[in-house]
Amino acid sequence: MLLVLPVDLDDDLGRKTGVETPVIGRDAVEEAAVRLATADPEDSDVNVLFQAIHAYDDLVASVDEEVEVAVVTGVDSGDVAANRRVGEEVDTVLASLTTGEDVRAVLVTDGAQDESVFPVIRSRVPIDGTRRVVVRQAQDLESIYYTMKQVLDDPETRGTILVPLGILLLIYPITIAASLLNIPGAAVLGILSGALGFYSLFHGLGLEETVDNAAARLRRGLYAGRVTIVTYAVALALIVIGVVQGFDRLSAAQVAATGQLPAARATAVFVYASVRWFAVAGVTTSLGQVTDEYLADRFRWQYVNAPFYVLAIAIVLHGVSGYFLPTVSGFAPIPIQRLAVTLTAGTLLGVLSTLTFAVAESRYEVEPEPQ
Length: 371
What we know:
This protein has helices at residues 12-17, 26-39, 44-62, 79-96, 112-115, 118-122, 141-153, 155-180, 185-204, 208-224, 227-256, 263-295, 305-323, 336-363; strands spanning 2-8, 23-24, 67-73, 104-109, 127-132. The protein is of the alpha/beta class. The protein has three domains: 2-134, Rossmann fold (3-Layer(aba) Sandwich); 141-205; 215-363, no CATH class.
């Protein structure tokens, strides 16, 4: 007996039509194929089912033995589970066949993925042959044109493909135009290639959603009157000032030292000059965040720890960096006694703030508003 066995490893038939598998018998398989074609005409498994029916009819007309057709499916959750499911359905099909002849299978698939289950089927029934279904139109130039047209009609895909291609095609004419205007062509080439690289990284890392979410949060913050938007802007300005101050003092120290400072001394100069600006930036942002939490009725006393922690860390960094300052004109390292005082002060500030607001949290706990 020959068994025509179309295989649907990812169970498109069951998921898209609700048909219970295995499906046994020509009429049942034809009905399942029609239902799948109605649900998703572009699914390649539709062709597999109709090819199985065609193979069944050919074998019935050409061989002198019984022929049956049955559809077996897997699951859409992984190769191992799918192979196991196919094996179970093949066992069900074989058990339902009432014949005294040896059963041999003719497998029908649409690609290499479904053919990965062949060893599972071969362990249950001998395989006489296989038929891979290839849609004839997919080999024609017309189909290639139609596929490209569909891809380019999609706005997301169109932007992903055409924008980099457009930049690549424009590099040469823009370079020529720049040379005619006495602009260095290498500079233009570098700018364009940099833009293309940035665009590719942006899409390759999937940053579109991150940027969109950040912009949406910014808009919501502006409309809701979030204080943190202002404090973040102020903090950014303070950080820039701190960086500039740090590099200015570092340059002055290198001039006074008449040579290159060691890395540790250079770092100490930069930190000592900029840490106060960074501290003010940190306190500003934390106070803005605390204010927003209070206005949103989500305030907790432990949130007030943040500015004190920032101050404590700034005091420690200020003392440590000051101790390692170079002994050059305009710079005076702080003595060890002062370093000890700053370390103690930073530690006590952090500990006392934690204890103070923990006590406040326990005594003045905010009751949640009734819903």
